[in-house]
Design goal:
The chain is mainly alpha-helical. It has helices at 11-41, 52-72, 90-108, 115-132, 144-147, 162-175; strands at residues 149-151, 154-156. The protein contains six helices and two strands.
Length: 184
């Protein structure tokens, strides 16, 4: 049995109901807008709020940064290297994102500053912590023996496989995209 449509005695009653519905719609819109604004204010480096293209962009920016880091710093010592399995370690992703942000900020200055020196002072303990943490809590501690070989003073760091990385980014972006609903 179908539900009966509500009957309104006057046009004024109908207008009141419509006004109330419009107020509810506006409240929901305002709440969604506030959430979106908060996500934007949170910064483009806050993984928990990133979606879509911005999330993919950060993955590739972080990959490039870690590639630079490994080429210039990490290859010198196994305890400094960020292994190619880093995308699968949430702690490594977060810590190296923080290093990326700080590195960019340190290099933005157009006047002499000690920001770059300070970046290095914070880098060493951060990378050491990544290596101290075992793989069960997001670090590289248990991975070092599986993913690298040392050769004298230079460390062979297998890079992130481009196809695997593209798949990881696509799947991660899909998993962190808002669910679209069909409009009735």
């Amino acid at each position: 049995m179908a539900e009966e449509e509500p009957q309104y005695a006057t046009t004024r009653q109908l207008e009141d109901v419509l006004a109330a519905l419009l107020d509810q719609i506006a409240a929901v819109r305002d709440e969604l807008t506030a959430e979106q604004d908060e996500a934007k204010r949170a910064g483009r480096w806050r993984w928990e709020t990133l979606e879509g293209e911005e999330r993919a962009d950060l993955w590739y920016e972080l990959r490039d940064f870690i590639g630079w880091y490994n080429t210039t710093i990490g290859r010198q010592n196994e305890h400094l290297a960020i292994w190619g399995c880093w995308p699968g370690h949430p702690v490594v992703v977060e810590v190296m994102t923080a290093q990326l942000v700080a590195w960019k900020a340190a290099h933005r200055s157009t006047v002499p500053t000690d920001a770059i020196r300070l970046w290095f002072e914070h880098l060493w303990p951060a990378v050491a912590k990544i290596h101290d943490l075992d793989g069960n809590v997001g670090g590289l501690g248990k991975c070092a023996a599986k993913h690298h070989e040392t050769n004298g003073n230079a460390v062979g760091i297998p890079p992130v496989d481009p196809a695997d990385f593209d798949t990881l980014v696509r799947e991660d972006v899909e998993a962190h995209s808002p669910v679209e609903t069909d409009a009735a």
